[in-house]
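Work Package 3 (structural annotation) set out to generate three-dimensional models for the target panel prioritized at the project kickoff. During this period the team completed the workflow that converts sequence records into discrete structure tokens, so that structures can be stored uniformly alongside our sequence database. As a representative example, we reproduce one entry of 154 residues exactly as it appears in the project archive.
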Amino acid sequence: MRGGGPPWLRGLHSRFRNCGYRLTSPRQAILEVFASANKHLSAIDVYRQVHNIYPGIGLTTVYRTLELLANMEMLFRFEFGDGKTRYELAEGPKGQRQHHHLICMNCGRVIDYSDFIDEEMEFLNQIEKGLSKKYNFKITHHQIHFYGLCEKCK
């Protein structure tokens, strides 16, 4: 790994290897792109960034790797209603990065919402607990998307 990388990223790499997959240079480059990303990335976004680091990578390799990482639950996959699939790391430097999304239906802006107040956390915990009990279902994580108009578009 270039420069060793932060411990949490090394942990993702270990998990990758422990699942029986080789840690190739393109896969490593893709993980590094996500580690430094500050937004949700499409396959094309990832391809452009990785291609600068690893010029030999193909778009097909990026798509396959994104699918693999999503199936391994190392990436979350999002559909925001614009026909593009976007991804982000499932776990960051401080562990699970639980957040929701506010999506502008006009310009497509996606706002991460993570500054929950106590009442919101309590409400979400009650919903999860109730659904788990009602359907005998173990919830591991959830995604909530709110659609509307952003400050600029309203």
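The longest strand covers residues 75-79.
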